[in-house]
Amino acid sequence: MKRVIFHSEAEWDLHQAIIFYERERTGLGRELRQEVEATVRHIQQNPRAFPLRADQQTRKGLVRRFPYTIVFIEFEEVLWIAAVAHQKRHPQYWSGRRPE
Questions:
Q1: Which helix (H) or strand (E) holds 72?
Q2: pLDDT tens per residue across span 61-88
């Protein structure tokens, strides 16, 4: 299984989403984190099972129960997470991100 690396801003995306949901209902932020972690595990198990985006470089994994998409690129040795992107906000805001 390939190692996963989050772009620092993807970590920030997730952190902000967790804060938002935790304010909505205690424990909901934790549930979001668990769903994101489960999606990342699925990505690790078979990254090519996830569809390529139009740019033909990034793939996307949908997070269950929450309106988020994990955008990633599969490299030879790692999976690089570019964004934990809300599906209804600022499409492609993450497109300028590059592996650090």
A1: strand 68-74
A2: 999 999 999 999 999 999 999 999 999 9
Tokens of 48: 């090519």
List Cβ neighbours of 100 (8 Å cut-off, separation of 6 or more): 7, 8
Residue 70, burial from CB neighbour count under 10 angstroms (0-12, 13-18, 19+):
buried
Sign of the four-CA dihedral 46, 82, 56, 32:
positive
**Rounded to an integer, what distance in angstroms lies between the CA atom of residue 41 and that of residue 49?**
13
pTM score: 0.91
- Distance in angstroms (rounded) separating the CA atoms of residues 96 and 77: 22
Q: Rg of the chain over CA atoms, in angstroms?
A: 13
Q: Coil, strand or helix: which one is 84?
A: strand
Using 50 as the pLDDT threshold, list the residues of the chain that sit under it.
Answer: none
Q: Which domains does the chain have, with CATH numbers?
A: 3-86 (3.30.2310.20)
